[in-house]
Amino acid sequence: MSGNNAYSCHSPWGTSSTWFPCPATTGTTTTTTTTTSPSSTTTTTTTTPTATSTTTTTTQSSNTISSSRSPTKPDGLPSDTSTSVKQTSTAVPNPDSSVTSSLPASSQTATPLHQHASLSTGATAGIAVGCAAAGLIIGLLAALLLFRRRKGKDVADISRAPILVKSKEPPSAEIDGIGPIAGIQLGQFLLDGAPDQEIVSELQALSELIHQHVEDYYTLQPVDVSVGTLSQSLQNLGLGSSGLGLTAEAIATICINSHSRHIGLRYVISRVIFASIDFHTRSGLSMLPGPAAGFLQSIPGAEYGGNNNLAFSQALQTWRRLSAFLLHQNRSQRTSLQADALTIAPQAQLVSNSLNNLLNAFVIPGKSNQQASHLQEVAIECAKLGYVLFSHPVDWKFIFEEPGTRAAQVRAVIICPGLEKCSDRDGNPIRPPRRVAAPVEAAL
Questions:
Q1: Do 325 and 191 touch, CB atoms closer than 8 A?
Q2: Residue 389 and residue 17: Cα distance in Å, rounded?
Q3: What pLDDT is attached to residue 334?
Q4: The whole model's pTM is what?
């Protein structure tokens, strides 16, 4: 036999042959039969490949040689001695395949060998420990993220708390918001106001318009009118009778004097027109929105003592803002209340006619019609500013006289009133009021 066969080792001749299988990768079944005769020895090896298996099946053969003398042939031929090899095979099957070996004239006993077809116990334990560690790490990370989120939320709530408390402190905050109604904060829908500088610029422009009106339509020539007549006309306009500032006689004297006439006329016109758009002035010549003007004329004054005056002022400011909101044609825009020229024309004409009872004595001859028409236009332009102030969140007030002014000390008169804020945009009172525009004075 050759050493290149599948069985690489065997015992010497004359003894039991034991074949040791070599590792195989093609899965074969090998059957060996040995026949011994006096003249020759024949060994037959049969190898049967297994096509459907990728695992090696090893067959171990145990040969038992028995010799028997054949009976003498009748023809006197010498008898042969035959040796039969009894082979016992032990097969190691592949768990993933089924192999059946059929060996003629032999018996087979198949005993499966123990193989490690799955992971070892140590590997399984390692995987279990790794999974447990990974789960523990994930749980710790989730707990850390949840803790940090709750901590951030608590810090945010604490940081907002002072703001909420601060907004509740001023009593006027309730007045401004009017309280939540059906889940709606009404203060968020009320009208917004123009910037301070825009209001001041408009006031200055109107003062210049009045100045131009006086320069164009009133003469500096001597006039035939008495101080008494002018004083009565001034009192009818509400001037000189308050006990503050200039008296009616002092104003009349300034207007009669040709050197100071234009200054006096500017004082009279600006005082009457701006008082008609001032929310704090109870004037019979109001150019505020008609319904509001009528209501202001009908309500009694404030009661003094305790907080009655403060309560009255707060209630009046709340009513002003609500009235402006309800009178607005396009409330959702939250813009200032617009004055329609046709709507306010009757009120402007009433103001101009009342002024002309005094001014007619100073009109340049031949310009009476133009003067009356232009004066009404001036009144309408001033009324537009009045609508802006009436619908503004801030409580505005005109300054017509400087405090402490006495008739004997007058060396100048105010030709354009100043403006001051009595509250902020949230309705909180400002004490004392903050001056935004100082009154414009002219020296006599």
A1: yes
A2: 126
A3: 86
A4: 0.59
Phi-psi region of 193 (alpha: psi -120 to 50; beta: other; left: phi over 0): beta
Amino acid letter, residue 182: A
List, for residues 133-168, the tens digit of each pLDDT value: 888 889 888 888 887 776 555 544 444 444 444 434
Residues with Cβ within 8 Å of 280's Cβ and at least 6 positions away in sequence, in order, are: 397, 398
Average pLDDT over residues 359-372: 96
> What is the arrangement of strands in the sheet containing 418-423, beginning at the earlier edge strand?
396-399, 418-423, 429-437
Q: At 59, phi and psi to the nearest 5? A: -115, 120
pLDDT at 102: 40
Q: Which residue has the tokens 């789960």?
A: 135
pLDDT digits over 204-222, tens only? 999 999 999 999 999 999 9
Residue 222 is predicted with a pLDDT of 93
- Angle, CA 78 vertex, CA 73 and CA 80 arms, to 5°: 90
Mean pLDDT of 401-411: 63
Is residue 416 within 8 A of residue 381, CB to CB? The reply is: no
CA distance 230 to 375: 19
Domain ranges in the chain are 190-299+310-394
Q: Note if the bond before 95 is cis, omega within 30 degrees.
A: no
User: d(Cα 247, Cα 406) in Å, to the nearest integer?
Assistant: 9
Which amino acid makes up residue 33?
T
Q: Which positions ≥6 away from 390 have C-beta within 8 Å?
A: 277, 279, 288, 289, 292, 320, 324, 337
The pLDDT assigned to 243 comes to 65
Q: What is the mean pLDDT of the chain?
A: 74
Listed residue (56, 46, 73) closest to 21, CA to CA = 56
